[in-house]
Amino acid sequence: xxxxxxxxxxxxxxxxxxxxxxxxxxxxxxxxxxxxxxxxxxxxxxxxxxxxxxxxxxxxxxxxxxxxxxxxxxxxxxxxxxxxxxxxxxxxxxxxxxxxxxxxxxxxxxxxxxxxxxxxxxxxxxxxxxxxxxxxxxxxxxxxxxxxxxxxxxxxxxxxxxxxxxxxxxxxxxxxxxxxxxxxxxxxxxxxxxxxxxxxxxxxxxxxxxxxxxxxxxxxxxxxxxxxxxxxxxxxxxxxxxxxxxxxxxxxxxxxxxxxxxxxxxxxxxxxxxxxxxxxxxxxxxxxxxxxxxxxxxxxxxxxxxxxxxxxxxxxxxxxxxxxxxxxxxxxxxxxxxxx
Length: 340
Prior knowledge:
This protein has helices at residues 6-9, 20-30, 32-38, 42-52, 67-80, 84-93, 95-101, 115-125, 130-141, 167-189, 198-210, 216-243, 252-272, 332-338, and strands spanning 3-5, 103-105, 152-159, 291-293, 301-312, 315-322. With 340 residues, it is an alpha+beta fold. The strands form two sheets. Strands 3, 4, 5 and 6 form a four-stranded antiparallel β-sheet that branches. Strands 1-2 form a two-stranded antiparallel sheet. Strand 4 and strand 5 (301-312) form a beta hairpin. Helix 6 (84-93) crosses helix 8. The chain starts with a strand and ends with a helix.
């Protein structure tokens, strides 16, 4: 067994002078992490999220973390500022962090799967609603806020790590991924790899990428070739599906990317004709991202969620957030009503 919940083994721990767990608990109460832990309503937050999850009978292995521990793990992520793998590695050797999560990890059998953090994060994100969760936090901290009648509000963008998505980069990213998928599936089913101009277009794209500045006519010609190549690859993928009788099974991530590639082809065709489009895709990995025009001197366009924040006595709350651009100048009235 890799770990145990502290609540399940407390009664079995021997009370001797060498009870290091008790000493760690006493030092935890006076530590910075312990003081933060006292201000987190983990039980209320876990109950709110679990109330939105579908009622299903437990299946498979017993979950590693209790419900409160999963919420605490999400707080430890920004507190440490580490990656998922780094957070798991620190959790294995830090008993104070284990106490926060309500678990006890056996040093001989540490957690080795760093993906458990992202798995928990994705599962909780699917059922959370930011408004009631923020209400629980505000009720917990209300007695300690001194200037509750004073409010500061501003909009910002929480940027995602994303290379600047030009039309050439986005189209080539779609072509490169589709060609790799098509090649692997053809080898799996014993079909010949379809003949396309993938390698010729790839060489032309590489030459264009090495130039400091390309002429508009050359860029337009390359965009046209990439559009034809992407259309050909999608047709070959449909043809392979017909040959195999629809048995070319894709994972959820691959299906999401394939759908995004089709949407990119439609949008880029219309952009090539000079049409104006809405809900423009800038990444096939994250098709929900949108370009947010901020008008700053050093960065005119940002990619991520646009958020209208409220700051009360130094604590920031989210009043409205969206991956689509919105006018934050008209949200003052709704912001004032939210803080009543």
